[in-house]
Design a protein that fits this description.
Layout: H1 3-9, H2 15-23, E1 27-29, E2 32-33, E3 46-48, E4 51-52, E5 61-66, H3 82-86, E6 93-94, E7 103-109, H4 112-119, E8 127-133, H5 139-147, E9 150-153, E10 158-161, E11 166-171, E12 174-179, H6 186-193, E13 198-206, E14 209-210, E15 219-221, H7 224-234
Helix pairs in contact: 1-2
């Protein structure tokens, strides 16, 4: 098994994050600093920062209806972090992010492999939001949001036009938007560019998972049927 896959299988992080830990020489196999791409054998002793790693026994998949004010980070020293909020007895981490000021659906797991597949941008997995803004929504606003807005992408240090998406007006100040893209604070930045300010933002769906029957601040396990559909989507 590849070393990065072994590390992700312990529930600590995703494969991509495991690669970064390996690059930083924080991982040792049988006492030796391990290189990228290393293959782990059955009886190998894998350590991260001197701590022995063990593969987890069961995969955990959770849907949380996150309240505003909770930060999607595994950094336990940050007040209001999502890990302390959920208070799950095993190590889990969020799939993607939902910014502190927003509320709604976020998934958490200890399965690093599924994280990579869901977050992979080219897979174009839908995420649906209901957004309330500070002033009346116009037809031109809906049209501009639907066809792409030029915003600054700090990760690539360049401007980018957001992908075309579906936008539906609900009432004078509320709309629904379905994104397959996941830029940081994307909806807020799109609205700001068009002269609007987001008052409330709620994510109501990720792929086939919805908030139905899940109160704000509560979490539940994903069902076998939900996982079956997710796995069929990410394996295509």
């Amino acid at each position: 098994m590849r070393l990065n896959k072994f590390i992700s299988s312990t529930g600590i992080c995703s494969r991509r994050e495991a690669d970064e830990l390996i690059k930083q020489n924080k991982v040792r196999v049988n006492g030796e600093i391990a290189p990228l791409g290393y293959n782990v054998e059955k009886n190998d002793k894998v350590e991260l920062n001197g701590k022995l790693l063990k593969q987890k026994k069961n995969d955990v998949y959770i849907a949380l209806n996150k309240p505003a004010g909770i930060t999607c980070t595994t950094e336990r020293h940050i007040k209001g972090n999502i890990i302390d909020f959920v208070n799950y007895p095993e190590r889990i981490f969020p799939i993607g992010r939902l910014d502190k000021d927003s509320e709604g659906l976020i998934l958490l797991t200890n399965d690093g492999d599924i994280v990579n597949e869901i977050l992979r941008e080219e897979n174009n997995h839908d995420k649906e939001y209901i957004v309330t803004v500070n002033k009346k929504i116009t037809p031109s606003f809906i049209n501009d949001m639907s066809n792409g807005v030029k915003i600054y992408n700090p990760v690539k240090n360049e401007y980018t036009v957001t992908k075309k998406c579906k936008v539906f007006k609900i009432n004078d100040k509320t709309f629904k938007i379905v994104l397959s893209q996941g830029l940081n604070r994307q909806i807020r930045r799109m609205c700001q560019k068009l002269g609007y300010r987001v008052v409330k933002l709620q994510r109501i769906r990720i792929m086939n998972i919805t908030l139905k029957g899940l109160p704000l601040g509560k979490w539940r396990y994903l069902t076998e049927e939900e996982l079956k559909i997710i796995n069929s989507k990410i394996s295509n």
